[in-house]
Amino acid sequence: MNSRFLDLALRLPDEFRALEPALRELLTRTFKRGKIELRLNPDRAPDAAAALPQPEQLVRLAALQVAVRSQLRDAELMSVHEVLQWCRSTAPVAVLDEAALAAARVCVERLGEARAREGDRLVAILMERVEHLRGLAAQAAPLVPQVVARQQQRFLERWNEALATAGANQSVSAQSLTERAMSEAAAFAIRIDVAEELGRLGAHLDEITRLLRKGGELGKRLDFLIQELHREANTLGSKSAALELTQISVEMKVAIEQMREQVQNIE
């Protein structure tokens, strides 16, 4: 697959150009995403019953040869090989077209079966990555209160330093102390607020699981959810003031990138 949209490339001999609309309709009805190349190489070897001339063709050829020799008395008769070639080239177009379409249908059916098997394998891989991410989120959740406690302690230490400075320097007003306290509190809240990210990440994982179990055309929806997972993991890492959470964020991004690569192959 490796393509967000359906990209068709048809390689047809000139005598089969009229089949292109029908072949495109067959492919677009079956596939919705991916890069697909269909190449038609007719077997021109004279073999078996398919190469045997039909009686009406021989009658027509005999009449043509009589007409030619009436104008060109030195013209040579056609060889058996030349007769067979001529008969194949003048075979009914509808017969050749139907044979080509039938072969294309077989190819599409077999490709669909192969993709179904590959899809089952990809679903198993993605489910395993989803569970891995759930495990990482479960590791991160109990760390959040610990991070909060450490940040609270640091905040109190900075606040006490500010009070000590105010006591030594009477020029520092109560308003300045209040502004600093508000600034510290805002920074504190921003730095420790990772519970929301973990909650949204869990919701995205639930939706991915639901889609994978449901089946159908999932590719574009999964693309979006993978982007959302990456955004939450990035935010978790940028907000974290704890090394443990930062390491978990990195592991999450690695797993999400692995999922993104696999999702490119899902319709």
Automatic annotation (TrEMBL):
This is Uncharacterized protein (TIGR00255 family). One of its GO terms (molecular function) is RNA endonuclease activity. Residues 1-122 form the Endoribonuclease YicC-like N-terminal domain. It comes from Sphaerotilus montanus. Its cofactor is a divalent metal cation. It holds the Pfam family YicC-like_C. Belongs to the YicC/YloC family. The lineage of its organism: Bacteria, Pseudomonadati, Pseudomonadota, Betaproteobacteria, Burkholderiales. The keyword Hydrolase applies.
